[in-house]
Amino acid sequence: MTRRWIALLALVAPAAAQRRDGGFRRSPQIPETLPDGRSRRLITLKKDADKSREDMARVVELATELHGEIEKNEFHTVDLGSVRKAEEILKLVRRVKARLSRQQ
Questions:
Q1: Is the whole-model pTM more than 0.90?
Q2: Alpha-carbon distance 103 to 48, whole Å?
């Protein structure tokens, strides 16, 4: 960018963020409760817990399948399907871990 454009942007950017009454724009506040009185945070935590249960059930299912495939394999190698299952297990576990760390 040329110096002229940089100078122009420096003049316009602060003015764009400022309102006519002299104050700055603020993001709208999200209410902590829903219109029916329930806590927004509590509902989010319950949904996260349900999703974590579903994901962990899938992890257990995939892990038992992967264990069976590795046990029946006679060679010291695994097929590509087993590697993909292991990657999906890792992805699901990371997702659950992120939800759990968000709850604290």
A1: no
A2: 9
Asked if 43 and 52 count as a contact pair (C-beta separation under 8 A), the reply is no
User: Which of the 8 DSSP states describes residue 21?
Assistant: T
| Nearest alpha-carbon partner for 66 in 74, 54, 78 | 78
C-alpha 69/C-alpha 71 separation (Å) is 6
CA distance 31 to 39: 9
pLDDT in tens, the chain (104 residues): 577 767 666 665 555 555 566 666 666 777 777 778 788 888 888 999 999 999 999 999 999 999 998 888 877 778 898 999 999 999 999 999 999 888 76
Query: Using alpha carbons only, how large is the chain's radius of gyration in Å?
Result: 26
Q: Three-state secondary structure along 48-79?
A: HHHHHHHHHHHHHHHHHHHHHHHHHCCCCCCC
Query: Angle of helix 40-72 relative to helix 80-103, nearest 10 degrees?
Result: 160
